[in-house]
């Protein structure tokens, strides 16, 4: 059994419409769920992932599909370079599955979960700043800011204060240690439907991995790299990510509000680089959510590349 069930798989395949001879980038390889389903159609898959622990899953897929599969270790921001490196002439589709996977959460040594004791790491790759670096070194203001911005934690200032007070005694090293301090700062669980540390851990993970910046960069790269008629499918699990994807597609399809008929904006004078595959977002059905609770918050948005020039940089 795969340690990570691909969410909205049938809907993603419908949006990508892969065929024999197509070249598809699976920008979040993980355990290879989307990749295997795409490969079964006869398409070639260039899989991307910055997580070094996915290599055994990639080796298994490569053993079954040696001619039509390859994995490239890179984050979303390296998508265009990865495609150029592949030597393929035309890109027919890109799929993103945003956020942390269940198999990453289940690995205590990765430090993503407050439910399992492990080093306070949270890096999806093996490089860069860790969550421990942030809580042990950042000032109160920046720390409270990310808790509020990325975690929607209303008591962000109180949590940051508690972290600063405790780290004077000894630095944070373990996930359960941080979770306990956050829980106490927020007054305990008191029947809360989610653990009090949920939002803080989410915020730290997003900051450590620059997840929102990577998403923007990945969307820009997909726009620049997809051939006319190429399909884009993006699955998100959080409102922050979905908001970025929705805004990107709203703008790139020429449906952004604003401007004036007397003084058209730059957005209005550009040709749409995408057309929507369907309006709004698709969500998982009851049968899927019963079997995979992670699917409850999933949203799929999809679009088709036009022959217009790419628009480039996304506003933060």
From TrEMBL:
Q: Which GO terms describe its biological process?
A: rRNA base methylation
Which SUPFAM superfamilies does the entry link to?
A: Putative methyltransferase TM0872, insert domain, S-adenosyl-L-methionine-dependent methyltransferases
Subcellular location, principal: cytoplasm
Extract the Pfam families matched here.
Methyltransf_5 (PF01795)
* E.C. no: 2.1.1.199
Binding locations of S-adenosyl-L-methionine: 32-34, 49, 76, 97, 104
Concerning InterPro entries, the annotation shows: RsmH, SAM-dep_MeTrfase_MraW_recog, SAM-dependent_MTases_sf
TM ranges are: none
* GO MF annotations, alphabetized: rRNA (cytosine-N4-)-methyltransferase activity
- Spell out the subcellular localization from the entry: Cytoplasm
Domain of life where this protein originates:
Bacteria
Q: Which UniProt keywords apply?
A: Cytoplasm, Methyltransferase, rRNA processing, S-adenosyl-L-methionine, Transferase
Which catalysed reactions does the entry list for this protein?
Answer: cytidine(1402) in 16S rRNA + S-adenosyl-L-methionine = N(4)-methylcytidine(1402) in 16S rRNA + S-adenosyl-L-homocysteine + H(+)
Q: Which GO terms describe its cellular component?
A: cytoplasm
Identify its protein family. Answer: Belongs to the methyltransferase superfamily. RsmH family.
What is the recorded function of this protein according to its Swiss-Prot or TrEMBL entry?
A: Specifically methylates the N4 position of cytidine in position 1402 (C1402) of 16S rRNA.
Q: What is this protein called?
A: Ribosomal RNA small subunit methyltransferase H
The coding gene here is: rsmH
